[in-house]
Amino acid sequence: MVLDNDAINKAARDRNVAIFFAAALRKQARLITSSVVLTEILRGSDRDTKLNHVLSSTRTVVEPVTEDLARAAGKLIGDAGFDSTEVVDALVAATAHMYADRAEAAGQQPDVLILTADATHLPGLAGDRKGVRVQNVKDIRSS
């Protein structure tokens, strides 16, 4: 699962989302985010405690923004017809594409879920990439 800032914030505040993440981790899912998302959510204060807890799983991966990832995100912005205000979302989408590409290269069927509260921009940025889907974190309910 690739997480944007809204998904991480919601997991820190919403029991249903926290339960959803815990269940995913039990199924060996990875929680993946872009390093730039940390800039959006962390403030170096007590408010970070719950956010850091969400990020503390051994199955959480914070992907650095490499030149290749930045170029891929820029292309997604251009392809979607958005402007540079969507940089962070584009990096989240590019990270999801990278994981889908890795799965295909390993001979696996890609299945990458992007969790977001931004149902307007991320679907456009994710495009129609096979194996990448976007879900609104607000739709998560406990089961």
TrEMBL record:
Ranges for domain PIN: 1-99
Nuclease as UniProt keyword: yes
Source taxon at top rank: Bacteria
Keywords per UniProt: Hydrolase, Magnesium, Metal-binding, Nuclease
The keyword Metal-binding is assigned to this record: yes
One Gene Ontology term of the molecular function aspect: metal ion binding
InterPro entries, per the entry: PIN-like_dom_sf, PIN_dom
Protein name: Type II toxin-antitoxin system VapC family toxin
Organism annotation: Actinomadura latina
